[in-house]
């Protein structure tokens, strides 16, 4: 008869092999870690960040492995401007009807590269998604309604041209339908430094949809994450169908500043949602390459809304996402 202690030990070993009990430490990227985006697909995490002159994709089977993971360049600017103003920003990797696309900003315009059925492939056919000023584009899935293209746009309000959020239905991977303004930076906490709404990221949970976004100017410590909430009622293209959070949901703390421009990804086993974002140790905030990439698990409040907690600290060791396999 097998010893109960040995049986428990065997079960523990099996849990390690099947579910993973590893750890990782932040940051995942110490330089050029701005505007991060992660997706987990078929055994790999895929990471993209702002590198300013090109679009890069890094993959690894573990979150900690992204620090030294395989990296390939998908696109390089033809004529980078050494003084800035024509930079490549905020690339994101999304699958639409079985094909992978990379959405990114260049020269304050929104572009897309077309890939194939696998994320680790070639991307070409650069297309401008729309003609207006626009950066930080993402795709937001709204259950029972479809896929929407959301980005940071310019809109007029009260005599000002404001960096706002716009939304449009996605027609296919490279084109959108009629668009409308989703949110403007009209609240005091969205107007610190410069009035800004940017860096949208979609999140679904318990029958509701959130669009998280970055509020205020990145070159302040008040650059933070807020959110719009859709409860399943009304047209998602209408701003009145969304409820804006009463203030930031995630903001500078513990010596990490400008904790914003985030994205969400699921754990390997699909049971957890994680927040990936950038932060800087510059107490004045930063819009530059010194921003680092951090990741931490999302919690949930009693009312079903996301609890983003407080920022992780550089060097802090955290439990790896659920279902991650040890390598």
TrEMBL record:
One of its GO terms (biological process) is carbohydrate metabolic process. The keyword DNA repair does not apply. Gene3D superfamilies: Glycosyl hydrolase domain, family 43. InterPro entries: Glyco_hydro_43, Glyco_hydro_beta-prop_sf. This is Arabinanase/levansucrase/invertase. The lineage of its organism: Eukaryota, Fungi, Dikarya, Ascomycota, Pezizomycotina. It comes from Echria macrotheca. Keywords: Glycosidase, Hydrolase, Signal. Belongs to the glycosyl hydrolase 43 family. Pfam families: Glyco_hydro_43. It comes from the Eukaryota.
